[in-house]
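Posting this for the archive.
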Amino acid sequence: MMQPDHDLEPIAICLVTYNSGRLMRECLLPFEGRGADVTVKVWDNGSDDGVTPRLLVALKERGLIDELHLSPDDPGFAVGANHLIRRSAGQAVLLLNPDARLELEDLARLRRAAHDDPTVGVVSPVVSGDGDIQVMSAGRQPRLWPLFTHYSGLSKVFPRVRFLRGRHLFLASHGDEDQDVEWTSGACLLIPRATLDAVGLLSERWFMYGEDVEYCQRVLDAGLKVRVLASAKAYHAVGASTVDDVDDLLTQANAYEVAYTEEGAGHGEPPDITGMWARNTYDYYLNQFEPNVVARLAWRAIFSGGLAGRAVLRMVRDRDDRMARKMLQNAAAVW
């Protein structure tokens, strides 16, 4: 077991799940050797796949989860995350998605960076993944100019020109040095306790998508920095556990009853998440920056045109490209 670093404040690794039990084993295995100053807390938002709750109970029995809460309904990501944050008094918090993977050594680097510079309000690793992803989940706030430089391609052609940096930074150009940015993804985000005390909880305005960007803006408004730490790396999970792993965990879980919390009113109609990312991004832009009518029209035209153009290029290469269809759905969602 890794020995606690007494110089660093204790930290709670907080995960919100929904029907993602098969990803959780791979996500949590890197923390198996954690010290006593690192706790793992999981909030399940009413998974109804018949598998996830039992898998989570089994993972808790194996010691990969310290604190497990099973909600009977799904009120959204931020609500679940805030429940865990409230249960983490006196601790820093690492928000982590079930489909992300972070090693203990990289967690230590994030904690050390937050400890050594009290002006850092939140810090994240450089997140990369499989496939053709070239951008970082970090960059500038979705105002009109950064949106234009991103979707016009200017930020890609001139990545070193700060004035032209757009909505996203690029892995090839910015992934090897620390960056102070305007937003970074909540998929893997360390929030020191001092920031939580000063800035508060995540916004519950949206079911999911948007709360990380909004939180980063509040961190900036508090005079703190949003930093991407180049020495810390995180990755998208390579896939779910094998069938044998799942069956083994379920066998271990058979002796345990799944006890739901009393919070919530039970399963309701699932929200329509088609285009939710685009709708919430636009709603955040309107609420945060209060643009005039012309700016609103320009923002939607740039956003939709940029996404639709990228979707068409992908479909030229592969007519059945699923990502292209999602991009077209999001392009239409802001109108």
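Residues 238-267 have pLDDT under 50 and may be disordered. The longest helix spans residues 293-317.
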